[in-house]
Amino acid sequence: MRVAMIGTGYVGLVSGACFADFGHVVTCVDKDAGKIDRLNRGEIPIFEPGLDALVAQNVEAGRLAFTTEAKDAIAEADAVFIAVGTPSRRGDGHADLSYVYAAAKEIAELMDGFTVVVTKSTVPVGTGDEVEAIIRETNPDADFAVVSNPEFLREGAAIKDFKIPDRVVVGTDSERAREVMRELYRPLFLNETPILFTSRRTSELIKYAANAFLAVKITFINEMADLCEAVGANVQEVSRGIGLDGRIGRKFLNAGPGYGGSCFPKDTLALTKTANDAGCPVRIVDTVVEVNAARKRAMADKVIKAMGGDVNGKTIGVLGLAFKPNTDDMRDAPSLDIIPALTEAGAKVIAYDPESMHEAEKLLSGLDYAESAYEAIDGADAMVIITEWDQFRALDLDRVKTSLKSDIVVDLRNIYSPEDMAKRGFTYISVGRP
Ligand code: UDX
């Protein structure tokens, strides 16, 4: 199959490289000439484990190319994927669909022969109808079908999630389009991956419902963690105790500083907007959005309390800035709420993150950056873990003890054992554990 991928952001790049690796011929198109130049030089603009090698192999094999010229890519394609950004619109929180609609118009002008137009970007229910109307209006003779095919890729594990997914969801009423989609995902059928064919609107909603449900799960366990702290219980054991019930499931029950990232905050908010507009509010998701935002802010107070209620003039070594490990993504990261609150309270913050400091520098000011975890905490009054990178789990805790001026460790990701930390003489504060 020939595939055109419009947008070389996170989703477009990973999906394009993986489809090429499935044996299809993929052209990734982006208007950003600088980005395309870099990709053509073999530079990958995001940090995603394994992506650089996957791109290089498939470029080398002649199955993957990058261009700013949409014309041939779209004309030759059996399937054109729209994988452009859908950021939250400033002011009202609705998804901004202007990039999706611009892509639809361009595709309409350039398509040739039967073409399946696939929305990969996360788009509100009904967007496929709008894309179809735009194409029809721009090119009344076009032979096409619009399909919703949401992605469920986790940053840091995106290639695995693409190649060994729990399921593939395809929303369309067109049998011809279904055939093309089956062919595109054919290698997955060897692993017996379920492919779920639904209507387009249902498929669009599945994506939001999945992300909102996961956000509910995380927020639920975060509130249980607070309750554990209040009543002297252990949230990790609560997670295990409830998660072993197959109806609940063990995943996504790690308490922490609140969810962040490019999807959950944006998608939960967009879902509440869609639901309100439809006159059918999803109050549980409204509450989750509110509780999660408040939690991120509350984490700074937790640190201040752990340091005796006053951080003015004190130094805090912060480990981890990205919204989660194995990514350099800082979007809606808890660190963006926690660090400004600490510096406003008069603390001097020295931060270290293995991958995201270049991103953090654009978003955070009033702090210093260190070259390593040990440098960040050297002489500090407290060490605060915000992101659970493996290298922080593996720190030499004896060295940490001698590096810190005090013995305070605030661990917002529960990466150390409270018993072990107590034995080593730390004043150790984690999330939802005695
Ligand atoms: C998410 C979804 O998992 C993916 O399917 C979707 O399509 C895109 O959004 P991603 O944002 O990359 O992926 O990260 P994910 O691993 O889901 O984590 C999201 C946030 O939740 C992170 O801030 C993470 O730290 C937090 N989280 C996750 C928890 O606090 N506890 C958990 O148990 C799991």
Automatic annotation (TrEMBL):
Source species, domain of life: Bacteria
Segments forming domain UDP-glucose/GDP-mannose dehydrogenase C-terminal: 317-418
EC number(s) given by UniProt: 1.1.1.22
Record field: catalytic activity: UDP-alpha-D-glucose + 2 NAD(+) + H2O = UDP-alpha-D-glucuronate + 2 NADH + 3 H(+)
Pfam families: UDPG_MGDP_dh (PF00984), UDPG_MGDP_dh_C (PF03720), UDPG_MGDP_dh_N (PF03721)
The protein's annotated pathway: Nucleotide-sugar biosynthesis; UDP-alpha-D-glucuronate biosynthesis; UDP-alpha-D-glucuronate from UDP-alpha-D-glucose: step 1/1
Gene3D superfamilies: Cytochrome c1, transmembrane anchor, C-terminal, NAD(P)-binding Rossmann-like Domain
Enzyme's top EC category: oxidoreductase
InterPro entries named among the record's database cross-references: 6-PGluconate_DH-like_C_sf, NAD(P)-bd_dom_sf, UDP-Glc/GDP-Man, UDP-Glc/GDP-Man_DH_C, UDP-Glc/GDP-Man_DH_C_sf, UDP-Glc/GDP-Man_DH_dimer, UDP-Glc/GDP-Man_DH_N, UDPglc_DH_bac
Keywords tagged on the record: NAD, Oxidoreductase
Matching SUPFAM superfamilies: 6-phosphogluconate dehydrogenase C-terminal domain-like (SSF48179), NAD(P)-binding Rossmann-fold domains (SSF51735), UDP-glucose/GDP-mannose dehydrogenase C-terminal domain (SSF52413)
Oxidoreductase found in the keyword field: yes
Family of the protein in this entry: Belongs to the UDP-glucose/GDP-mannose dehydrogenase family.
Record's protein name: UDP-glucose 6-dehydrogenase
